[in-house]
């Protein structure tokens, strides 16, 4: 099950007894944990859905789902005095095209009776399908992730991270915190910035390490280094600050394909279709990449490689 980043959303529990929905003895409690660390994030009571016996909801506020992550929801309740527990896992994901934007750019109707009406759930499924196709083709996830990564210095003022970084809150050198942006401390003695490509950190030097005698000054250096073999742990937000426009445009094309009549045939690897006075033959390329030539061209520049980018 998925939740979207940056949105307040409800999660649900159905209480059954012998395959019949029924009320719990009292409103269930819900504890939501980080799915990877099991750290408690929020807890509270679920609310019964109006005119829907046995169906409960709990609201997850947007500030708890600002980055891509996994969540574990543990529901506790009782039926006729017997304690019950249910556990659900949720993937918090960045939609590559918001559902509201999808309705607008696909010229789809939001309500029954509207021209080109598409049910909200079906639009979500189309976005999910297109997002998976984009990720499968590029090898890249265009979300945001709060985490810590490790990189090793090479006696240079640039530290290659191997991942895109949006911002950092702490840097450790061989296990010792040298920069903490939350506490506003810096024992590293140099400012550190993110490079323009977002793949590396760079030390902002204060000048040249040359003293008045023209020799290298090793006592009061003005240039910093990420020392060779030193371990640097960087805590921050990684990934993409926003989904690139070319990716969004590819999403539109793939979502159109999802709703297209020919998609059912491609999904079954059918290469030739004949019905009535219409004959249709798919190119072999329709079964490669995303299945959409123009979407592939838009996404080509994002395909992951092992090349280091400073």
Explain what you see.
This protein has five helices and 20 strands. The protein has 310 residues and is an alpha+beta fold. It has three domains: 92 residues, Immunoglobulin-like (Sandwich), CATH 2.60.40; 101 residues, no CATH class; 96 residues, no CATH class. α2 crosses α3. The C terminus is likely disordered.
Number of strands: 20
Radius of gyration over alpha carbons? 26 Å
Number of helices: 5
Major beta sheet summary: 5 strands, mixed
Q: What overall form do the CA principal axes indicate?
A: flat
Cα distance spanning the termini = 37 Å
State the helical fraction: 10-25%
Could you say how many structural domains there are in total?
3
- H and E string: EEEEEEEEEEHHEEEEEEEEHHEEH
* Sheet with the most strands: spatial strand order: 1-10-9-5-6
Average residue-wise pLDDT: 87
The assigned structural class equals alpha+beta
- Beta-strand share of residues: 25-35%
Which regions have little confidence, pLDDT < 50, spanning 5+ residues? 209-217, 306-310
Topology:
Elements: E1 2-4, E2 9-14, E3 16-17, E4 20-21, E5 29-34, E6 40-45, E7 47-48, E8 55-60, E9 69-79, E10 82-93, H1 99-105, H2 120-138, E11 144-152, E12 158-160, E13 165-173, E14 176-180, E15 185-186, E16 192-194, E17 200-203, E18 231-239, H3 245-259, H4 263-266, E19 272-275, E20 278-281, H5 293-299
Parallel strand pairs: 1-10
Antiparallel strand pairs: 2-8, 3-4, 5-6, 5-9, 7-8, 9-10, 11-18, 12-17, 13-14, 13-18, 14-15, 16-17, 19-20
Helix pairs in contact: 2-3, 3-5
Short account of what is shown:
This protein is 17% helix and 35% strand. With 310 residues, it is an alpha+beta fold.
